[in-house]
Amino acid sequence: MIRKLCRETGCDVWFPFYPLCMEHCITETYAMVYECYRKMITLYGGGNVSTCGFSSGGALALGIAAHNNAQPEPLPQPRHIVVVSPGEVPWNDAEKARMQALNERDVSIDYAFMVTVEKFMRHGCKNVPDYMLSGSRGDFTGVGDIHFFYSADEVLYGALPDFEEACKRATVPYTVSARPKMVHCYCMLPIFKEAKEDFAKIVDILKK
């Protein structure tokens, strides 16, 4: 998939092998990916870097913008952020209810996992910023635009209204594509009609 993105976007694609929360706190993951982002900005310049991610990678692709705004001297924000089914620990009653309502239709991820995953993400750390656990609590001010892709039948689709509110708070333009009867991160498998179509949309966004 990464090679396909390289070929079809004409862009350099950086794929950070970030520290996993099975062995590290999420703060270490953010530190590594943010340093990667810093090097990209240094090399390509502000306005020439976008972030794209799937599932947990989608959470990071969004989270880097929030993390950047939390710094004393922020870097230029991503030109585009493209996320497919970004991970999110549910943090309010409405979001929890929406995720639970979708649980029976999701064949990939159980709602209970999205609640218990916080323990793994913290990995014993107490002082973890809210936006690292629940990206919709972050500040996306300054991002060029954000594009969300979901299956309309997955648990994580229940987080979309909170991400939309975050975009509105930051006055960031955003788009949403939600396909019924798809599986979590279906765009990663561009071998069937719906996935091919939406992977092509991702390519078009990143080519701009």
From TrEMBL:
GO molecular function, one term: hydrolase activity
Keyword Glycosyltransferase: no
Highest taxon of the lineage: Bacteria
Domain Alpha/beta hydrolase fold-3 per the UniProt entry, residue ranges: 2-187
Alphabetic keyword roster: Hydrolase
Keyword Hydrolase: yes
Pfam family, one: Abhydrolase_3
InterPro entries with a match to the protein in the record: AB_hydrolase_3, AB_hydrolase_fold
Record protein name field: Alpha/beta hydrolase
The species this protein was found in: Faecalibacterium tardum
Lineage: Bacteria, Bacillati, Bacillota, Clostridia, Eubacteriales
